[in-house]
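Sequence in, structure out. Go.
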Amino acid sequence: MTLDELLVLVIEPSKLQRTIITDHLREIGLKEIEAFEEATPALQRMQQVIPDIVVSSMHLPDMTGTDLVTRMRQHQALTDVTFLLISSETHYRYLEPIRQAGAIAILPKPFSQDALAAALRNTMHYIRDLHETEPEEQSELEFMQILTVDDSSLSRRYIIKGLNAIGIEQVTEASDGAEALQIMKHQRFDLVISDYNMPNIDGLELLEHIRRYSDQPTVPVMMITSEQNQSRLAAIQSADVSAICNKPLNYDMLKQMVRRLTSGVI
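Output:
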Protein backbone atom coordinates (compact mmCIF):
# COMPACT_ATOMS: atom_id res chain seq x y z
CA MET A 1 0.00 0.00 0.00
CA THR A 2 1.31 3.43 -0.96
CA LEU A 3 0.27 7.00 -0.20
CA ASP A 4 -1.51 7.43 -3.53
CA GLU A 5 -3.81 4.51 -2.65
CA LEU A 6 -5.16 6.15 0.52
CA LEU A 7 -8.46 8.02 0.70
CA VAL A 8 -8.25 11.15 2.86
CA LEU A 9 -11.18 13.28 4.04
CA VAL A 10 -10.28 16.85 4.97
CA ILE A 11 -12.78 18.78 7.11
CA GLU A 12 -11.96 22.47 7.50
CA PRO A 13 -14.39 25.46 7.45
CA SER A 14 -11.88 27.95 6.02
CA LYS A 15 -11.52 27.71 2.25
CA LEU A 16 -7.97 29.05 2.49
CA GLN A 17 -6.99 26.50 5.14
CA ARG A 18 -8.66 23.66 3.17
CA THR A 19 -6.62 24.64 0.13
CA ILE A 20 -3.39 24.80 2.14
CA ILE A 21 -4.01 21.38 3.72
CA THR A 22 -5.04 19.65 0.49
CA ASP A 23 -2.09 21.19 -1.39
CA HIS A 24 0.29 19.91 1.28
CA LEU A 25 -1.28 16.45 1.10
CA ARG A 26 -0.87 16.35 -2.68
CA GLU A 27 2.75 17.51 -2.43
CA ILE A 28 3.42 14.64 -0.03
CA GLY A 29 1.99 12.15 -2.54
CA LEU A 30 -1.67 11.70 -1.65
CA LYS A 31 -4.08 11.81 -4.58
CA GLU A 32 -7.49 10.66 -3.31
CA ILE A 33 -8.56 13.69 -1.26
CA GLU A 34 -12.14 14.82 -0.56
CA ALA A 35 -12.65 18.17 1.20
CA PHE A 36 -15.59 19.28 3.34
CA GLU A 37 -16.53 22.53 5.06
CA GLU A 38 -18.65 20.83 7.74
CA ALA A 39 -18.58 17.52 9.59
CA THR A 40 -22.13 16.32 8.82
CA PRO A 41 -21.66 15.78 5.06
CA ALA A 42 -18.28 14.19 5.79
CA LEU A 43 -19.94 11.71 8.17
CA GLN A 44 -22.57 10.98 5.53
CA ARG A 45 -19.78 10.31 3.03
CA MET A 46 -18.16 7.92 5.50
CA GLN A 47 -21.34 5.84 5.44
CA GLN A 48 -20.78 5.32 1.70
CA VAL A 49 -17.02 4.77 1.66
CA ILE A 50 -14.64 4.23 4.57
CA PRO A 51 -11.67 6.63 4.43
CA ASP A 52 -8.17 5.66 5.46
CA ILE A 53 -7.47 9.00 7.14
CA VAL A 54 -9.63 11.87 8.41
CA VAL A 55 -7.91 15.24 8.81
CA SER A 56 -10.05 17.71 10.72
CA SER A 57 -10.01 21.12 12.34
CA MET A 58 -11.27 21.41 15.93
CA HIS A 59 -13.92 24.11 15.53
CA LEU A 60 -16.37 23.29 12.73
CA PRO A 61 -19.66 25.07 11.88
CA ASP A 62 -21.89 22.16 12.94
CA MET A 63 -19.83 20.47 15.70
CA THR A 64 -16.35 20.25 17.19
CA GLY A 65 -13.62 17.88 16.14
CA THR A 66 -14.25 16.14 19.47
CA ASP A 67 -17.90 15.56 18.51
CA LEU A 68 -16.81 14.31 15.09
CA VAL A 69 -14.36 11.70 16.32
CA THR A 70 -16.82 10.60 19.02
CA ARG A 71 -19.52 10.02 16.39
CA MET A 72 -17.06 8.18 14.18
CA ARG A 73 -16.09 5.82 17.00
CA GLN A 74 -19.77 4.99 17.60
CA HIS A 75 -19.87 3.27 14.19
CA GLN A 76 -18.17 -0.12 14.05
CA ALA A 77 -16.84 0.46 10.53
CA LEU A 78 -15.18 3.75 11.56
CA THR A 79 -13.63 2.76 14.90
CA ASP A 80 -10.23 2.10 13.33
CA VAL A 81 -10.09 5.01 10.88
CA THR A 82 -7.01 7.10 11.66
CA PHE A 83 -7.89 10.61 12.86
CA LEU A 84 -5.52 13.57 12.58
CA LEU A 85 -6.47 16.85 14.27
CA ILE A 86 -5.10 20.20 13.10
CA SER A 87 -5.95 22.96 15.55
CA SER A 88 -4.70 25.97 17.48
CA GLU A 89 -6.80 24.73 20.43
CA THR A 90 -4.82 24.02 23.61
CA HIS A 91 -7.64 23.58 26.14
CA TYR A 92 -7.60 20.22 27.93
CA ARG A 93 -11.42 19.99 27.75
CA TYR A 94 -11.29 19.83 23.94
CA LEU A 95 -8.09 17.87 23.38
CA GLU A 96 -8.36 15.11 25.99
CA PRO A 97 -11.41 13.36 24.43
CA ILE A 98 -9.57 13.28 21.09
CA ARG A 99 -6.51 11.80 22.76
CA GLN A 100 -8.72 9.22 24.45
CA ALA A 101 -10.41 8.38 21.14
CA GLY A 102 -7.11 7.27 19.64
CA ALA A 103 -6.12 10.20 17.41
CA ILE A 104 -2.90 9.35 15.65
CA ALA A 105 -1.61 12.93 15.92
CA ILE A 106 -2.58 16.44 17.00
CA LEU A 107 -0.86 19.13 14.95
CA PRO A 108 -0.84 22.80 15.98
CA LYS A 109 -2.19 25.43 13.61
CA PRO A 110 -0.33 26.79 11.75
CA PHE A 111 1.56 23.57 11.01
CA SER A 112 4.66 22.94 8.94
CA GLN A 113 4.67 20.67 5.91
CA ASP A 114 7.39 18.61 7.60
CA ALA A 115 5.17 18.05 10.66
CA LEU A 116 2.25 16.99 8.46
CA ALA A 117 4.50 14.70 6.42
CA ALA A 118 5.83 13.08 9.62
CA ALA A 119 2.28 12.48 10.90
CA LEU A 120 1.25 10.95 7.58
CA ARG A 121 4.33 8.73 7.44
CA ASN A 122 3.43 7.50 10.90
CA THR A 123 -0.13 6.84 9.68
CA MET A 124 1.14 5.04 6.59
CA HIS A 125 3.40 2.79 8.65
CA TYR A 126 0.47 1.89 10.90
CA ILE A 127 -1.85 1.06 8.00
CA ARG A 128 0.87 -0.89 6.17
CA ASP A 129 1.86 -2.94 9.21
CA LEU A 130 -1.76 -3.60 10.14
CA HIS A 131 -2.51 -5.15 6.76
CA GLU A 132 0.86 -6.44 5.60
CA THR A 133 2.73 -7.82 8.63
CA GLU A 134 5.15 -10.48 7.42
CA PRO A 135 5.06 -14.00 8.97
CA GLU A 136 8.68 -13.88 10.14
CA GLU A 137 7.98 -10.62 11.95
CA GLN A 138 4.97 -12.15 13.66
CA SER A 139 6.91 -15.24 14.78
CA GLU A 140 9.41 -13.02 16.58
CA LEU A 141 6.69 -11.48 18.77
CA GLU A 142 3.85 -14.02 18.77
CA PHE A 143 4.56 -15.33 22.28
CA MET A 144 4.93 -11.90 23.88
CA GLN A 145 2.43 -11.11 26.65
CA ILE A 146 1.38 -7.44 26.98
CA LEU A 147 -0.89 -5.84 29.58
CA THR A 148 -2.52 -2.55 28.52
CA VAL A 149 -4.16 -0.45 31.24
CA ASP A 150 -6.48 2.48 30.49
CA ASP A 151 -9.93 3.56 31.68
CA SER A 152 -10.84 4.49 28.09
CA SER A 153 -11.90 1.49 26.02
CA LEU A 154 -11.17 3.49 22.86
CA SER A 155 -7.61 4.17 24.01
CA ARG A 156 -7.13 0.48 24.80
CA ARG A 157 -8.47 -0.42 21.38
CA TYR A 158 -6.04 1.96 19.68
CA ILE A 159 -3.08 0.51 21.61
CA ILE A 160 -4.18 -3.06 20.87
CA LYS A 161 -4.57 -2.33 17.16
CA GLY A 162 -1.08 -0.82 17.17
CA LEU A 163 0.33 -3.89 18.92
CA ASN A 164 -1.50 -6.13 16.45
CA ALA A 165 0.09 -4.18 13.61
CA ILE A 166 3.52 -4.82 15.12
CA GLY A 167 2.73 -8.54 15.26
CA ILE A 168 1.71 -8.93 18.92
CA GLU A 169 -1.56 -10.78 19.43
CA GLN A 170 -1.55 -11.74 23.11
CA VAL A 171 -2.76 -8.56 24.79
CA THR A 172 -4.67 -8.45 28.08
CA GLU A 173 -6.81 -5.42 28.99
CA ALA A 174 -7.41 -3.71 32.34
CA SER A 175 -9.65 -0.68 32.90
CA ASP A 176 -7.60 0.77 35.77
CA GLY A 177 -4.65 0.04 38.05
CA ALA A 178 -6.73 -1.95 40.53
CA GLU A 179 -7.87 -4.40 37.86
CA ALA A 180 -4.33 -4.58 36.47
CA LEU A 181 -2.90 -5.61 39.85
CA GLN A 182 -5.51 -8.34 40.23
CA ILE A 183 -4.63 -9.69 36.78
CA MET A 184 -0.91 -9.60 37.54
CA LYS A 185 -1.43 -11.88 40.54
CA HIS A 186 -2.29 -14.70 38.13
CA GLN A 187 -0.46 -13.85 34.90
CA ARG A 188 3.06 -12.77 33.96
CA PHE A 189 3.81 -10.14 31.33
CA ASP A 190 6.69 -9.05 29.13
CA LEU A 191 5.51 -5.42 29.12
CA VAL A 192 2.90 -3.23 30.83
CA ILE A 193 1.55 -0.22 28.90
CA SER A 194 -0.42 2.07 31.20
CA ASP A 195 -2.27 5.36 31.10
CA TYR A 196 -1.42 7.82 33.89
CA ASN A 197 -4.78 9.41 34.76
CA MET A 198 -7.19 6.65 35.86
CA PRO A 199 -9.77 6.19 38.65
CA ASN A 200 -9.22 3.94 41.70
CA ILE A 201 -5.49 3.29 41.19
CA ASP A 202 -3.75 5.60 38.72
CA GLY A 203 -0.67 4.89 36.62
CA LEU A 204 1.84 6.13 39.20
CA GLU A 205 0.30 4.07 42.00
CA LEU A 206 0.24 1.03 39.72
CA LEU A 207 3.90 1.52 38.84
CA GLU A 208 4.92 1.92 42.49
CA HIS A 209 3.01 -1.21 43.50
CA ILE A 210 4.59 -3.24 40.68
CA ARG A 211 8.09 -2.15 41.65
CA ARG A 212 7.68 -2.58 45.43
CA TYR A 213 5.16 -5.33 46.08
CA SER A 214 4.49 -7.50 43.03
CA ASP A 215 6.32 -10.66 42.05
CA GLN A 216 7.14 -8.98 38.70
CA PRO A 217 9.17 -5.96 39.92
CA THR A 218 11.42 -5.79 36.86
CA VAL A 219 8.73 -5.93 34.17
CA PRO A 220 9.13 -2.95 31.77
CA VAL A 221 6.38 -0.34 32.27
CA MET A 222 5.59 2.22 29.58
CA MET A 223 3.52 5.18 30.79
CA ILE A 224 1.34 7.05 28.29
CA THR A 225 0.10 10.44 29.42
CA SER A 226 -1.01 13.90 28.36
CA GLU A 227 0.18 15.23 31.73
CA GLN A 228 2.20 18.46 31.50
CA ASN A 229 2.87 19.03 35.21
CA GLN A 230 6.62 18.65 35.60
CA SER A 231 6.50 17.59 39.26
CA ARG A 232 4.09 14.76 38.42
CA LEU A 233 6.24 13.66 35.49
CA ALA A 234 9.28 13.73 37.77
CA ALA A 235 7.43 11.51 40.26
CA ILE A 236 6.78 8.98 37.48
CA GLN A 237 10.46 9.02 36.54
CA SER A 238 11.47 8.57 40.18
CA ALA A 239 9.22 5.52 40.46
CA ASP A 240 11.46 3.74 37.92
CA VAL A 241 9.26 3.91 34.86
CA SER A 242 10.83 2.34 31.78
CA ALA A 243 9.51 4.97 29.34
CA ILE A 244 7.09 7.91 29.23
CA CYS A 245 5.25 8.63 25.97
CA ASN A 246 2.94 11.50 25.09
CA LYS A 247 -0.73 10.96 24.34
CA PRO A 248 -1.81 10.58 21.57
CA LEU A 249 0.77 7.84 21.12
CA ASN A 250 2.70 7.96 17.89
CA TYR A 251 2.57 4.52 16.21
CA ASP A 252 6.23 4.61 15.17
CA MET A 253 7.11 5.49 18.77
CA LEU A 254 5.00 2.58 20.05
CA LYS A 255 6.76 0.20 17.68
CA GLN A 256 10.19 1.50 18.63
CA MET A 257 9.51 1.45 22.37
CA VAL A 258 7.97 -2.03 22.42
CA ARG A 259 10.97 -3.46 20.60
CA ARG A 260 13.44 -1.63 22.84
CA LEU A 261 11.75 -2.40 26.14
CA THR A 262 11.18 -6.08 25.38
CA SER A 263 14.67 -6.66 23.98
CA GLY A 264 16.24 -6.27 27.43
CA VAL A 265 18.10 -3.10 26.40
CA ILE A 266 16.48 -0.36 28.56
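Check: The two ends are 33 Å apart (CA to CA). The first strand starts at residue 7 and ends at 11.
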